Amino acid sequence: MNKIFLTSLPLLAAVGAFHPIASAANEVKGPMAFKPIPGSAYDELTNDPAILNESTWMIPEGFKQSIVSDESDLNIYINQDWPDMNTVNETRIQAGRYLYRTHEVRPGNDQRNDGKLGGTVSVVDLRTGIAKELAAREDWEALDGLVWTPWHTLLVAEETNSGGYPDPDYPLATGGLVYEIELEKKDPATAKKVTARPLLGSIAHEGIETDDEGNVYVIDEDRAPGGSIFKFVPDNYGDLSSGKLFALRVKNGGQTGEAEWVELQLDPVTFDAQVAAEQVGATSYCRPEDLERIGKTLYAALTCEPRIGGKDGPGAVLAISLNEMPMVSYFVEAGINIATENKAAGITGLKSPDNLANGPDGKLWIVEDNVPSDIWVAEPDNDGDGHADGVHLFASLKDSTAEGTGIYFGKNPQKLFVNVQHSGTGNDKTMEITKIKKLHKSDKKHND
């Protein structure tokens, strides 16, 4: 498969009719410089594989999109092979070569083609195109969150609170656990060891992130009454077998403002971080999803904030300053620095932000759990008001049942990786969207 296709026609002629955002921005600067597309793919939604395998996303002029790996390369599950989040080897001698993915399966949902159960982590060799399983366990349930640690291991996390596939070593854990995968030093496509890390809490994990001090941040992806945001501080750098778990608590009782990290008393049998967080009055949010750190700020995608009067909101992105006195704000909020989506009226805006990525120049990239699933780019908060100085529409997914997920930048600052899951074609896939390099005058002359 691995087809390459270009957006070479003028934008409006190439993609058809759109419903414009209230105000269109000029070109967004940086390595991925682009002119925002004028609206979501409302008029382009389809489940036709002939279209979606050639042009899955609406993207700006000057970019190309290609399939990195799909179910023709690796098809693990009977129904759907769901690649969720990804990261690449950024630190060692083969930095940027491998792409890692978690595959989310739940009890009674997707059985493996070999008759076994449980989730999987796969790896794609970007040099050869070969995709294979890295690690699998029959007790892995709803495997989702994934991050590369500064000490060269992978952390993967279960997004469940059902305990349908209990870990045999921690059978009374109330929800999902975090697992650490150690890779072979000479072969990053081979797992050497997998270890459960229950001290990071047993909850419905999804977003997971680290900082330069070796702390690990996780979330509880809960809708009602809501999930908290946690910080694990290890006793020793790179060793997650001992340490303390904290939860974020906003001091004024609201969702934003001055905050603190409150130490939790984690039950050594159930490891239930949600109960421990409730005991100290930790702040809860409506379905926290992904986490992303850029410098000294931790961002959290909140699918249904701000919740008003018990009613779910359109979603927001939270910013938490990582200093001695954390400050919490809605970095991206519908009606403040981005429109509120109204699909019925054809108004493009924010709806259900899900996955986050650190862009090559410090901008925050956001992908929605929505149809159509949009990719937004948020400018840094340079004026200090807690909000992104601008939010721009980069891409919109044309697949009528799918969502984008696992958005990520590797070594190449002009190449974005993103997964497409729950595709109407039945063919989930990992894709790259790459900026087309402009030819210099001398190159054009040589090519004439």
Task: Label the structural class.
Answer: mainly beta
How many distinct beta strands?
27
Strand order of the largest sheet: 12-13-14-15-16-20-19-18-17
Provide a count of the helices. 4
Runs with pLDDT <50, length 5+? 1-24, 442-448
Output mean pLDDT.
Answer: 89
Name the beta content range.
35-45%
Mind telling me the CATH class of the domain at 4-9 and 31-285 and 397-436? Mainly Beta
Overall geometry comes to: globular
The gist of it:
With 448 residues, the chain is mainly beta. The chain has helices at residues 11-15, 49-52, 273-279, 441-447, and strands spanning 4-6, 57-58, 63-70, 83-88, 98-103, 120-125, 131-136, 143-148, 153-158, 178-184, 187-196, 208-210, 216-219, 229-236, 239-250, 257-263, 288-294, 297-302, 316-321, 327-333, 353-358, 364-368, 374-378, 391-397, 403-409, 415-421, 429-435.
Structure notes:
It is a single chain. With 448 residues, the protein is mainly beta. It has a domain at 4-9 and 31-285 and 397-436: Neuraminidase (6 Propeller), CATH 2.120.10. It is built from four helices and 27 strands. The protein has helices at 11-15, 49-52, 273-279, 441-447; strands spanning 4-6, 57-58, 63-70, 83-88, 98-103, 120-125, 131-136, 143-148, 153-158, 178-184, 187-196, 208-210, 216-219, 229-236, 239-250, 257-263, 288-294, 297-302, 316-321, 327-333, 353-358, 364-368, 374-378, 391-397, 403-409, 415-421, 429-435. The strands form five sheets. It has a nine-stranded antiparallel β-sheet, with no helix packed on it. Strands 1-3-27-26-25 form a five-stranded antiparallel β-sheet, with no helix packed on it. The chain is globular. 51% of the residues are buried.
